[in-house]
Every structure is written in structure tokens, then in C-alpha cells.
From TrEMBL:
Residues 230-257 form a coiled coil. It comes from Lacticaseibacillus sharpeae JCM 1186 = DSM 20505. CDD domains: HAMP, HATPase, HisKA. This is histidine kinase. GO terms for molecular function: ATP binding; phosphorelay sensor kinase activity. It is a multi-pass membrane protein. The keyword Coiled coil applies.
Length: 476
């Protein structure tokens, strides 16, 4: 069964049940009120007769009774009077009736009785016939003794006719309400199903790869909340798709860069080997060729080791042996190692750090981080200045490495942590063997230490790296 019919059936069932309960209660209350009203009317008639129909000498005022019956003929109300011996005194006919014994006992005790039973009524020709009637008995006492009983009766069909009219009106109202309920439930169900269908169509669009879908999220019901969550999901999928595309582009670029980095030394080695095999290289150049092949081989080994190192760091396979040591001494040692390279580029290296500066880190990895950043600064700075600053921060050690090199654009800064990314693609084969893996490794190592690394750079002005390493107390 389709959802629209399920919704309609649900709404209609609730409405029909509610209408049925209300209708039955209304009919019940109306019926009870009709009988109670009838009983009160008959009681009032008997009370009036008690005051006027029987005279003080027990003489029955026949004219009064006849006039009242004539006035109430439209309701078919009739009166009977019985004496204390349960003998009918009015109307007096050859065949006299009596009050049933079970009621007579209660009447003698002073109880008025209202019942519905089969009773004899007087026809227009003066005969009796039985008919279902509403009967009211009123006993009249004087000085504690029963004088007479007044009986007022009205055929049930007169009251039932009014009740039937009410029931018919209720039934008509029930049918009209049910038809209105069907129409209303259809439109309500249709609206809900249309909203669900929009979600369904949006799901189909997403399944086909179209994440650019928009849904109406107005309202505060569950479907609106679901549409809002669905919108959040599509936004997330769009972002994921963009990220996947970016990662795929980076993967293709990585494969191309990796192939290029490995192809260059392999081509060099292969060319030299062919030259040696065919004696195309002069004898005096063979030693130099062998040294060149050794250097290119070492370069390939370093490239492979750096890739393996990066993957181990990225996947958390390395164990950092952190300890607190003298950071100023490390900075001085690295500067001494790079002085020659800096001099060849016309750069000057300076260190500005207090003598008691310490850092909590893995010694070898800390050296690797600072060395890579400083070497990178030398590669992109000609006849400039590279300054290393160290200081204590709030429960952490802070280091700033700045240069006056070529700088980077905003887009370049965003990508420098990617493997094989080159801010300056023309520097693919420098004497320092730049592979594009150094900063990617630096970023992972700093993250593993729980520290931070930030880059600020301006083209043709320079670049500044800011690093933090938290203290041991903070880590614990």
C-alpha cells in the first residue's frame, strides 16, 4: 500500500473513531435527556392533578381531567387515578385496570415511580389497548395514609420519534463529517507524501552523483528537521567530493613527481652505464662517472628512505623518545653545519636564543625539523639573512625561523605540506637534492610532538616559520 493511502487510512481511522465516540455519546446523552425530560413532564402533570383533579371529599374533578387530556392530546398523554385499594377510579370503565403489585408496594411506601412498560391506554371509542408507554406514578398521602395514586402515561413512540429524529440528524452529520475527513486527510497525507517524495528525489539525485540539491527546511516538524539534516549531509558530501578531487589531483601529481624524481637519477645512471659498457667514456673520466653514479644512487636511496620515513611518521609507526635538552646548543650546532651552504648562497645565519633555553622533544627528530626548515630557507634565499629565534612561552618552547628569500603566495603556503610539492618548480635539481618531502615530514613530526607550526610568507619579502613544542608537564 502506498504511503499516501497509509497516511489517509491513519488520519481517517482516528477521525472516524473520534466521530463515532462523539456521536454515540451525543445520542446517549440526548436519549437520556429525552427520557428524563419526559419523566419530569409527567411528574409535573401528576403534581398539577394532585392539586386540582381530586377534591377534598375524594370526588374526582372529571371536567378538569378531560380538559387536560384534551390539551395534551397532541402528546397522547392520558391519566388514570387509583384509590387506596388499587382500584381504578378514573376513567371508570367496565374493565378496570390495576397497578402491578411490585409497584404498588413501593407506592404505598411513598415512592414515586417512573418506568417504561406495556400499559393499557384508552382509545377514542372508549376501549382499551396495550402499548409501550412511559409511565409515572405519584402516590398522594393524607395524615400518613395513602389516599390515591395518579398515573400519567405517554406512548413511547411519541418520545422515540423525537429520539429517532435526533439520531437521524446525528447520522447525517456523521456522514458529512466523514466525507469532509476523507477530503482533509487526503490533502494532509498528500502534503506529507510530497515532502517525502522531494527527499526521495533528492536521494536519487545524490545517488547519481549530483550533490547540488536544495530542500525546503521551513517548519519545525520531524520532516523539516530531516530535510535540514539531509541538507547538511549533501553539503558534507560536496565538501568530501571536492576533497576527494583535490586528493586525486595530489595523488596524480605525487605519482608524476615521484616518477620524475626517480627517473632523473636512473636516467643518469643508465646513460653512464651504457657509456662504460661501450667504452664511450674516456679512461680519465671513468672515475668521475662512477662517483656520479654513486651520488645518484645515494640520492635514490635518500628519496626512498624519506618516503618510508614520511609514511611511518604519518601512520604513527615511529616512537618518539622525548626528553628535555639544551635547545640553544642544538640550534648552534645546526647553524655550524649549514654555514658552508649558506655562504655559497651568500646568506648569513644568526641565532638569537637564551643560554638556558630548553625543549621537551625527541632529540633526533627535533634536529631533523630545524635542519629541514633552515636548509629550505637557504635554498630559497640568495644574498639574504636567515635568523633563528628561540624563547620560552607559556608551558612551551617557541622557535621562529625567518628568511628574506623569494617568499610564497597564499596558494603556495596552503600546499607546502604536501609531498613533492615545489613552491618553485624550477628548483627540481639543486645541489641539495631537493625532493619536496622535507616540509611534509616536518609537519607530521611537529604534530606528533603535540606542537604547532605556522607559516607567514610574502612574495619577494621572505618567509617565517613559527613552531611550538609543549613542555612535559602539559603533555602529561
Amino acid at each position: 500500500m502506498k504511503l499516501i493511502y497509509q497516511q489517509m487510512l491513519g488520519f481517517l481511522s482516528l477521525i472516524i473513531v473520534a466521530l463515532t465516540v462523539v456521536s454515540l455519546m451525543f445520542i446517549s446523552i440526548t436519549t437520556n435527556n429525552a427520557w428524563e425530560t419526559n419523566s419530569r413532564q409527567l411528574a409535573s402533570y401528576t403534581e398539577m392533578l394532585e392539586e386540582n383533579a381530586v377534591l377534598s371529599d375524594m370526588t374526582i374533578n372529571t371536567a378538569f381531567l378531560t380538559n387536560n387530556e384534551h390539551l395534551l392530546s397532541g402528546q397522547h398523554v392520558q391519566f388514570f387515578i387509583y384509590n387506596s385499594s388499587n382500584q381504578q377510579r378514573y376513567p371508570f370503565q367496565a374493565t378496570q385496570g390495576t397497578i402491578p403489585t411490585k409497584y404498588w408496594k413501593r407506592l404505598k411506601q411513598g415512592e414515586s415511580i417512573s418506568i417504561r412498560a406495556t400499559a393499557k391506554i384508552v382509545t377514542r371509542n372508549g376501549t382499551y389497548r396495550t402499548q409501550n408507554s412511559s409511565i409515572y406514578y405519584r402516590p398522594v398521602f393524607y395524615s400518613g395514609k395513602l389516599l390515591y395514586v395518579i398515573e400519567a402515561l405517554e406512548p413511547i413512540e411519541t418520545i422515540q420519534s423525537a429520539i429517532n429524529k435526533t439520531q437521524k440528524s446525528v447520522f447525517i452529520a456523521f456522514v458529512i463529517s466523514a466525507l469532509a475527513a476523507i477530503i482533509v486527510s487526503y490533502f494532509i497525507a498528500r502534503r506529507q507524501v510530497e515532502r517525502i517524495n522531494r527527499l526521495r528525489n533528492a536521494t536519487h539525485e545524490i545517488a547519481q552523483g549530483n550533490y547540488d540539491v536544495a530542500l525546503d527546511t521551513h517548519g519545525r516538524d520531524e520532516i523539516s528537521e530531516l530535510a535540514a539534516d539531509f541538507g547538511d549531509m549533501t553539503n558534507s558530501l560536496q565538501e568530501s567530493e571536492k576533497e576527494i578531487e583535490r586528493q586525486e589531483d595530489r595523488r596524480r601529481q605525487f605519482m608524476a613527481d615521484a616518477a620524475h624524481e626517480m627517473r632523473t637519477p636512473l636516467t643518469t645512471i643508465n646513460g653512464l652505464l651504457e657509456g662504460l659498457a661501450y667504452d664511450a667514456i674516456p679512461e680519465e673520466m671513468k672515475a668521475q662517472s662512477i662517483d656520479l653514479m654513486r651520488n645518484e644512487t645515494n640520492r635514490l636511496i635518500r628519496l626512498v628512505n624519506e618516503n618510508l620515513d614520511y609514511e611511518k611518521i604519518r601512520t604513527g609507526q615511529i616512537i618518539l623518545k622525548k626528553k628535555t635538552f639544551d635547545a640553544k646548543q642544538v640550534l648552534t650546532n645546526i647553524t655550524s653545519q649549514l654555514d658552508k651552504k649558506a655562504a655559497e648562497a651568500g646568506d648569513s645565519l644568526t641565532v638569537d636564543a637564551p643560554e638556558d633555553l630548553t625543549v621537551f622533544a625527541d632529540y633526533d627528530r627535533f634536529v631533523q625539523v630545524i635542519f629541514n626548515i633552515m636548509q629550505n630557507a637557504i635554498q630559497f634565499t640568495q644574498n639574504g639573512t636567515i635568523k633563528v629565534t628561540g624563547k620560552r612561552g607559556f608551558h612551551q618552547s617557541e622557535f621562529v625561523i625567518s628568511d628574506t628569500g623569494i617568499g610564497m603566495t597564499e596558494d603556495q603556503v596552503k600546499n607546502i605540506w604536501e609531498r613533492y610539492y615545489k613552491a618553485d618548480p624550477s628548483r627540481k635539481n639543486t645541489k641539495y637534492g631537493e625532493s619536496g618531502l622535507g616540509l611534509a615530514i616536518v609537519h607530521q613530526l611537529v604534530a606528533q610532538h603535540g606542537g604547532t607550526i605556522k607559516v607567514d610568507s610574502t612574495p619577494d619579502v621572505g618567509t617565517t616559520f613559527t613552531l611550538t613544542f609543549p613542555d612535559a608537564t602539559d603533555e602529561q
